[in-house]
Amino acid sequence: MPRYFFHVLSPTERIEDLEGVDLADHDAARREAIGGLRSIIAEDVRGGVLGLDEWIEVFDASGVRLLLVRSGEALRLAVLGDSKEDLRVQFRPRH
To answer: What one-character-per-residue DSSP string does 29-87 give?
Structure first.
């Protein structure tokens, strides 16, 4: 199985994954990145903040970036009382 590395980025910080994780394929790596972002978002919410300015870059063992997964891809905001009115989170990183 290939090894994937998940680097977490925000406007002020970069946390590099030095160990990586063996996963079956790119789809599994995307799911892993989305799960990681959901954990970060949940921790932010527990602290009273909904910050959607993190993203994860997924690299292979040779250092090639394969995926960029933004916070907005990790969740869906739903309007209370009417699930037909779901809102998609749109996120663009600050430059």
So the answer is: HHHHHHHHHHHHHHHHHHTT------EEEEEETTS-EEEEEEGGGS-EE--TT-GGG-E
Q: Which two tokens stand for residue 1?
A: 């199985």
How far is it, in rounded angstroms, from Cα 24 to Cα 11?
Answer: 30
User: Is 50 exceeded by the pLDDT of residue 79?
Assistant: yes
Residues 58, 65: contact at Cβ < 8 Å?
Answer: yes
Rounded Cα gap, residues 49 and 45, in angstroms: 5
- The number of angstroms, rounded, from the C-alpha of 51 to the middle of its chain's C-alpha atoms is 12
Per-residue confidence band for 36, with pLDDT thresholds at 50, 70 and 90? very high
What is the C-alpha separation between 71 and 52, in angstroms, rounded?
A: 5
- The residue ranges of every structural domain in the chain are 3-88
Look up the pTM and report it: 0.79
Q: What is the mean pLDDT of the chain?
A: 86
